[in-house]
Amino acid sequence: MSNQKPGLADCMPGPERMPALPPEAMDEAQRAAAQALIDGPRGAVFGPFIPLLRSPELMNRLQKVGEYLRYQSALDTRVNEFVMLIVSRQWTQQFEWCMHYPLALKAGVAQPVLDALAEGRRPPGMAADEEVAWEVCDELQRMHGLSDVTYGRAVECFGERGLLDLLGLVGYFTTVSMVMNVARTPPMKDATAAPLASYPL
To answer: pTM, whole model, 2 decimals?
Structure first.
């Protein structure tokens, strides 16, 4: 066994490691988990759920959390989509970026804001609630917590429930970003958004 430590090149994109499982390769639990996803609001097994299907019970539990955060969260859809893209940029997660970029535009996030985010910059011209969401995500990434000032601003802007839903959204999308980065899940074939450049830009 080699003692050589992995370098950056070992983590760079390459061939997909966990492609879709053919139905005949699934066990009973995997088939049931896949069917539950198909029967839900997502309507298909795609993106993070392709690799997650290797652990069907984990997928079942995670997808329920994600279903709540995407479709029933206390946050405005525009803020929700913006936070998903902030996390996608932090993890250079191509599938989520390409999927949610057009959804964020449709929800009302300004394109210059998203273009700056793609470049790894603090976006100028954010709406007031977007700025608070960006600061929460930025401090969480850098400091693994929130300052009293940012906490106070977040509660004033979103309420305690909204802040908890925002934290849950960051945690959920961090998890699925890790899963897809390790699995090397590719973006959707019909993606219209340009892929993210890898850090450092």
So the answer is: 0.90
